[in-house]
Amino acid sequence: MSKPVIATASLAGCFGCHMSILDIDERILDLIELVEFDKSPIDDLKKFSRPVDIGLIEGGCCNAENVEVLRYFRKNCRILISLGECAIMGGLPAMRNTIPLRECLEEAYLHSPTVAPEDAVIPNDEELPLILNRVYPCHEIVKVDYFLPGCPPNADLIWEALTALLQGRPLKIDYPILKYD
Amino acid sequence: MARKITIEPVTRVEGHGKVTIHLDDQGRVAQARFHVVEFRGFERFVQGRPYWEIPVLVQRLCGICPVSHHLAGAKAMDVIVGVGPGKLTPTAEKMRRLMHYGQMLQSHALHFFHLASPDLLFGFDADPTVRNIIGVAKTHKDIAVKGVLLRKFGQEIIKATAGKKIHGTGAIPGGINKSLTPEERDYFLKSPAPFNVETMIEWAQEAVQLFKKIHRENREVIDNFAHFPSNHLSLVRKDGALDFYHGVLRAVDAEGRKILNDVDYQDYLEYIGEEVRTYSYMKFPYLKKLGKEKGWYRVGPLARLNTCDFIPSPRAQKEFEEYKAYTGGKPNNMTLHSHWARLIEMLHAAEVIKDLLNDPDITGDKLVKKGKKKHEGVGLIEAPRGTLFHHYRINENDQVTMANLIVSTTNNNQAYNEAVRLVAETFIAGKPEITEGLLNRVEVAIRAYDPCLSCATHALGQMPLEVELYNAEGQLIDRKRK
Hints:
The complex is a heterodimer. By secondary structure, chain A is of the alpha/beta class.
């Protein structure tokens, strides 16, 4: 029997959740025996040449590209997990949701004390994806099957969730490792 | 026929990035650009927040080196509460240093073992299904295990000082919120091998030897790859020593002549400017003294070992002398020597961690100081990837009114563009077909500067890349993926 396949993506996140996956430390060596990681976990979505069993999504959606990646993951993953605060609720980047987007751009590029007035311009290029009016949590865009909270989720929580899913048993989560920080 | 090549590694430093290369009719490189395509707006949305939230808010910029943002934010807030540089209690300063050097250890280990080692162990053209950390774990298990445990040791140090491995709360304006208990200290000093600081120093030393061995066997490739002159910038200790936590700004040119020396970073606005270019959300910093064209610089391990005079720990200093001798004491401008410099720094971090753990102040109880309030503060730190600038102003209600951030990766913006252009000119120009190994060379050049997100991407597989070839009418004529 072939091994279960795992894929991961970081959308509008800081990669802290991916770092927390690595914080399972030595168990990562066990994990790579148990599962296969998809070769292109992040952007090359058409390369999902086989069905993926578990997709882990870090970060919410702040631009059109995030939405596209998320939809491709949903289409190709049997189980989709929102990993961490940003995927679940938008997280810290969603602090911009109460502020008009233009103000955010003006503050960063027009009002910065290190930018000379004659250089002040807001980046605008066909290579840059469209920024959304606000930051959206993943489940407002696609159906999400599981939510692992935390900023970032505790490594033991990630390990327990993955092994429970792989073994087809209920999650057994001890209170100290489940945090909404 | 003129054409455009797009390389899209969606995940990139502090967001998502991609590379575009335009070739003219003769197949020469007309333009090569590195774009950062994500925008988050921290500068605006931290406005109105109370200043003491800053160290925990801004570390969410980056989950790979959150401690850097946490401490740079805290250092700026120290200035605001009137307990600026050098005025913290010895326990507070040493606990912060311990946290930071723990981070250096984990971040450098992550970069070398999880990210860079597959290229160096297997070669740029190796089978991409093997050329990743899983491949390393399967064929060089001892190296992978040491990498995982070195990183774990650094993360555990961060947890002991900040409460959590990622996004902790250790530093507060004017000090810290806890010191080490003797039990926590002894966990690192006296645990049975391998999980103790002595073993980590040995392993860090072995990693330096490993790079030197790879270098001996591939000297020409490593020395010539994306080798270009530039200025270099970092903090150095007042006496010229390497220091990751605090110091004065120093910049040298490609020949080692000092451009800036002994500069107090509270005055950084006098020396550093930023240019905005419409094709990237990442700005382009420059030294005002040299202007926009000539004033760009590199930061990070390569730059730090070019600016500092010596390393204040014995084993790393010995390696530093050998490293400097290789370029005859002149600045090292070889992109792939960043790995060598990074590993020497990792060894230094492990040595400093041992010294700090043995310092009685680390278990002290004087944690916070108060001073006379100011309304503006600048905090700088040497993050794993280079100099990090945080600058804030607050109002009479203690709310943040202005935030200006120049992150390490931004400081290297022009260097990425230079490296990409050089690799494109050397390996892509005039070639009718794009091979996978060629794509990887573009990655290798970017990766040497350790952009945050690619570490994580690569750590869980390989960095995805897509290259598209367009003809002059903009029609897609070829596409390659890996």
